Amino acid sequence: MRDFFNEPLTFSCGKTMPNRFMLAPMTNTQSHDDGTLSNEEYHWLTMRAKGGFGLTMTCASHVQANGKGFPGQLGIFSDKHIEGHKRLATEIKSNGSLAVVQLHHAGMRSPEDLIEGQPVSASSIKKHNARELSLEEVKQLKNDFISAALRAQKSGYDGVEVHGAHGYIISQFLSAEINSRTDNYGGNLDNRARLLFEITNGIRQACGPDFVLGVRLSPERFGMKLNEVKTVCKRFIDENQIDFLDISLWDCFKFPEEEDFQDKTLLEHFTNLDYEHVKLTVAGNIRTGTDVQTILNANVDFVSIGRAAILHHDFPKLVLANPDFEPVAIPVSEHYLHKEGLSDKFVTYMKRWDGFVAE
């Protein structure tokens, strides 16, 4: 089984990750207010590449200034960000890891104190004081995602992942609960998914066939419906324009929240699809070597590691050496997290996770 963990995986575009471990895109609040890369974020990410992750993904990086979702977010909406991204991509790749940027816009979830003007969304959302994007602004958003992908390619990254999960702007368009538009970007699922497919097809056309292209989706919360997300996945598989689907399940071992679909686990709903040439990764509560083995044995191509990668920068190496590896028990000390490459800002952010950082 150890050899399976360490087996290379080649995407349709031709790029190969050397093992089955991906660093999940994680909010860390460490970069500068203008979105340029900080030494702290550089250190955190490159330490994971050195620790054996076959694919190292950045945090969510916003494609428009008004799409900022959290303080200290790494941006990719301007050419001023390219210098830092070049430095980061070069070092990640020098350690044998694929370097991938997650492209993001927070939409209605952009805190007003971090952006100029109102937050924006598919529709006006009173709770978030968000206004509806005009049709021209929707087209501009699409173009800015594509421009950000080209910026990533220019910076030397192997690819990008489009963040369509967790209630951010693309999933705000996908959600029938949030999206009440009456134009071609609202109404039925094809219309609500239009922006996502225009973005991904536009990136593929602009960046060419040799660029890794993934999409992150989440099947629950923020008005998402399991069957609709599965339908979107099937369309991605059929159209064969992307390299991988990254399904964020919150917990890979739980059953769906929707009562009509509790005949199997949430994971099984997705592993039962035929992915053909598209690879599958999942995220959610994969914390031990045994968890990794269970997920990979369930017809998942590679695992997306979050919490365990914060606790152990070299989690892949530790699991490869011991398939039964279990991470250090929490809470852990601030000193421990500093040793694992987290800055003071990141440690402060992690204090929001109940019971993670010792008092």
Number of strands: 12
Largest sheet: 8 strands, parallel, barrel
* CATH 2nd-level architecture of the largest domain: Alpha-Beta Barrel
How many DSSP helices? 14
Fraction of residues in β-strands: 5-15%
Please state the CA-atom Rg, rounded to the nearest Å: 19 Å
- What series of H and E elements makes up the topology? HEEEHEHEEEHEHHHEHEHEHEHHHH
Instruction: Assign an overall shape.
Output: globular
Work out the helicity level: 25-40%
Strand order of the largest sheet: 3-4-5-8-9-10-11-12
Give an overview in words:
With 359 residues, the protein is α/β, with parallel strands linked by helices. The protein has two domains: 2-327, Aldolase class I (TIM Barrel); 331-359, no CATH class. Helix content is 35%, strand content 14%. It contains 14 helices and twelve strands. Strands 3-4-5-8-9-10-11-12 form an eight-stranded parallel β-barrel, surrounded by six helices. A two-stranded antiparallel ribbon has the order 1-2. A hairpin with a 5-residue loop joins β1 (9-10) and β2. α3 packs across α4 (135-155). 50% of the residues are buried.
Provide a concise account of the structure shown.
By secondary structure, the protein is an alpha/beta fold.
